[in-house]
């Protein structure tokens, strides 16, 4: 009844009482804020309208004044804000007092922080740009620290810093990201090893990356990998290859490897026009660097790629070889060469194989004006024609067994050097090598009538096999043998029978001869010249001069049949030796009834004619002279050669200004010593 009385009251009081007495009791909202990644409580500000509460240490909050029409806002430092629309929660339509617990609210972290360090040194990297998007980025401080705000749940972090390789990393549900970035810039200075001076314009390369040093020798190479091989090179210096691994600085000192010099005559002080300059690691090895000068007006040369230690060797026709030991900073730039005028005699390999007999020839040289000797390294005996007479180590020679260790070349050459004797190794090329032709018949010229090897027959008991001049296997065999002889210590290698067959001994020779190809005149000349070009390069490179014997008649013009063209051959030889034996010229030539009677005149005319072909070329003239009596002619044409005839030939050569010496020839090695002047 009391309730009715209260309810019977009037006016505003009634409405107030109804609102108070008839509403449900007040209900509080409570809940928890947790980290969406870790599930840990988050201290956050929770607000409804103008009411704000802060979660406790457990992330719990309580709101006592609210309405189902309210929106709860959750804000926490480092997290993406969250809004909760209470009208969407069915359990709040008729909440049960005294409190309603909402489901936990997960807030997602939206801040990423970390430290950027150097991968190699582990020190912090300041000034690095850390970017999550075009609008979300930060720069590291002095301690390498950064903070990105507003990042999404999954994103890509890019770290960019000057001097470092960019780093890209995908990040998901993370709040911290420490990383080390790899330096990718290499800096350094390039200097001269001996002077310490900076080298400008040096190339610095690593893979496809390349830069050059500035005027101070400094370089900066960007984008380098963690490991690789850097190559530093500069004109005039040996290049340097250096493995770089996890480094940002590399200084390099380059060794000068180029010699710029001038060659002059030690007596006249005039420049030397033609020469080959090589560098070798030792005196028993071929070149590691070579240059050739031809018709140089001032004798200047540039030799690139010289080793740090070794020897410079200079080969100039008409001069003794110069040998200069390489020492840092000690190689002179002006090299003076001593003129050399060779005066030689020839001995067969059979003579050279007998030490006591060979020493008699050495004694003759010591006692006379002679200063050189020519030694066959292949036999010129009929029963083993072409057999290599020393213990050759050339692989093809050993494979074919075309050698016997009859000559002790090392002992011979050592003794010659002790006496100051210039040594020339004579090598038969396309003829007088039956041993090679019979060991390799497929390399030989063919006989159409027999199907076998082509031989010519100067006499009934003599036969000379011919190798095919077109066959480059023959070239290589002889070049290898020549290089070996040069490395053993011969001063010069001389080719004989460097020609096509002369077809002079039988009227059937022309019909019988079959080569792998016929070839035009020009092709024959070119073939011989190419063989000489390769030989000259290899033999000079082994530290020896290179010379060739040529048919006496070629002194008067190129031979179509033989393939000898002095003008072409002189480009790739150091000496040309025409075999201008007066007795070999036919009656009536030069206007003489018998040229053998006129040794002085024949030699002078031959030298004059030969010089016209090679003047201005590299090679010098040094003829073979006759020191024998030719008996294979009619009796009325036989002219006995005495010391007078021998001396007349020598005088003719020595009075010819363009000569570089002479060589005496007798197949039996019996010489008129009395024709020679005594040693000075």
The helix/strand class is alpha/beta
The overall average pLDDT, rounded, is 93
Alpha plus pi helix count: 13
Tell me the β content. 25-35%
Count of DSSP strands:
44
> What gross morphology would you assign?
elongated
Spatial strand sequence of the major β-sheet: 42-41-40-38-34-31-30-44-43
Largest sheet: 9 strands, parallel
Give an overview of the whole structure:
This protein is of the alpha/beta class and 680 residues long. Helix content is 19%, strand content 31%. The protein contains 13 helices and 44 strands. The longest helix has 21 residues, at 521-541. The model is unreliable at 1-24 (pLDDT under 50).
Q: What structural keywords apply?
A:
four-stranded mixed sheet, nine-stranded parallel sheet, alpha/beta, 31% strand, 19% helix, 13 helices, 680 residues, disordered N terminus
What's the topology here?
Blueprint: H1 2-7, H2 11-22, E1 28-35, E2 45-48, E3 51-54, E4 60-63, E5 71-75, E6 82-85, E7 99-101, E8 105-107, E9 111-118, E10 129-131, E11 137-139, E12 145-149, E13 154-160, E14 167-172, E15 179-181, E16 185-192, E17 203-206, E18 209-212, E19 218-222, E20 227-233, E21 240-245, E22 252-254, E23 258-265, E24 275-280, E25 289-293, E26 300-304, E27 310-315, E28 322-326, E29 334-337, E30 342-347, H3 349-352, H4 355-367, E31 372-376, E32 388-390, H5 395-400, E33 403-407, H6 409-419, E34 422-428, H7 434-439, E35 446-447, E36 455-459, E37 462-465, H8 472-488, E38 492-496, H9 509-512, E39 513-514, H10 521-541, E40 545-551, H11 566-569, E41 575-579, H12 599-614, E42 620-621, E43 624-626, H13 643-654, E44 661-665
């Amino acid at each position: 009844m009391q309730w009715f009385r209260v309810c019977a009251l009037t006016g505003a009081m009634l409405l107030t009482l109804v609102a108070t007495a008839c509403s449900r009791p007040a209900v509080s909202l409570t809940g928890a804020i947790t980290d969406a990644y870790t599930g840990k409580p988050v201290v956050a500000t929770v607000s409804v309208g103008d009411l704000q509460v802060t979660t406790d240490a457990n992330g719990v909050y309580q709101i006592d004044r609210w309405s189902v029409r309210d929106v709860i806002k959750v804000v926490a430092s480092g997290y993406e804000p969250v809004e909760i629309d209470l009208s969407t929660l069915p359990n709040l339509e008729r909440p049960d007092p005294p409190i309603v617990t909402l489901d936990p609210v997960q807030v997602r972290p939206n801040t990423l922080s970390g430290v950027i360090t150097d991968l190699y040194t582990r020190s912090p990297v300041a000034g690095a740009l850390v970017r999550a998007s075009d609008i979300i980025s930060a720069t590291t401080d002095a301690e390498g620290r950064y903070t990105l705000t507003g990042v999404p749940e999954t994103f890509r972090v890019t770290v960019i810093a000057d001097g470092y390789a960019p780093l890209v990393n995908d990040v998901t549900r993370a709040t911290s990201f420490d990383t080390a970035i790899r330096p990718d810039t290499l800096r350094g200075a390039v200097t001269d090893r001996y002077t310490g001076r900076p080298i400008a314009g040096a190339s610095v390369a690593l893979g496809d990356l390349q830069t050059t040093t500035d005027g101070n020798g400094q370089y900066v190479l960007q984008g380098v990998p963690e490991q690789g091989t850097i190559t530093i090179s500069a004109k005039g210096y040996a290049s340097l290859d250096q493995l770089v691994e996890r480094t940002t600085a590399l200084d390099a000192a380059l060794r000068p490897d180029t010699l710029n010099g001038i060659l002059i005559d030690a007596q006249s002080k005039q420049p030397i026009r033609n020469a080959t300059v090589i560098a070798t690691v030792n005196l028993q090895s071929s070149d590691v660097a070579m240059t050739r000068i031809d018709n140089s007006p001032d004798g200047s040369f540039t030799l690139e790629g010289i080793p740090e230690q070794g020897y410079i060797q200079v080969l100039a026709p008409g001069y003794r070889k110069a040998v200069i030991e390489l020492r840092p900073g000690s190689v002179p730039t002006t090299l003076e060469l001593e003129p050399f005028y060779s005066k030689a005699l020839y001995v067969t390999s059979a003579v050279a194989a007998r030490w006591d007999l060979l020493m008699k020839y050495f004694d003759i040289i010591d006692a006379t004006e002679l200063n050189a000797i020519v030694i066959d390294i292949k036999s010129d005996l009929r029963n083993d024609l072409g057999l290599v007479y020393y213990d050759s180590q050339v692989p093809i020679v050993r494979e074919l067994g075309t050698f016997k260790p009859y000559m002790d070349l090392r002992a011979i050459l050592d003794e010659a050097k002790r006496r100051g004797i210039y040594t020339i190794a004579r090598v038969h090329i396309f003829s007088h090598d039956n041993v090679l032709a019979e060991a390799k018949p497929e390399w030989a010229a063919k006989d159409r009538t027999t199907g076998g090897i082509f031989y010519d027959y100067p006499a009934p008991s003599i036969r000379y096999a011919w190798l095919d001049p077109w066959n480059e296997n023959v070239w290589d065999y002889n070049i290898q043998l020549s290089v070996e002889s040069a490395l053993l210590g011969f001063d010069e290698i001389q080719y004989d029978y460097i020609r096509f067959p002369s077809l002079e001994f039988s009227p059937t020779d022309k019909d019988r001869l079959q080569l792998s190809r016929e070839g035009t005149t020009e092709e024959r000349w070119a073939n011989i010249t190419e063989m000489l070009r390769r030989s000259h390069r290899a033999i000079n490179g082994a530290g020896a001069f290179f010379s060739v014997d040529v048919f006496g008649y070629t002194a008067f013009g190129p031979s179509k049949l033989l393939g000898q063209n002095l003008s072409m051959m002189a480009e790739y030889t150091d000496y040309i030796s025409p075999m201008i034996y007066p007795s070999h010229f036919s009656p009536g030539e030069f206007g003489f009834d018998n040229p053998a009677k006129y040794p002085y005149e024949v030699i002078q005319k031959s030298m004059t004619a030969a010089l016209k072909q090679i003047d201005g070329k590299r090679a010098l003239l040094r003829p073979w002279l006759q020191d024998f009596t030719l008996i294979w002619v009619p009796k009325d044409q036989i002219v006995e050669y005495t010391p007078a005839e021998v001396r007349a030939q020598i005088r003719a050569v020595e009075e010819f200004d363009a000569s570089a010496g002479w060589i005496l020839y007798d197949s039996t090695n019996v010489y008129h010593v009395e024709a020679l002047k005594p040693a000075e």
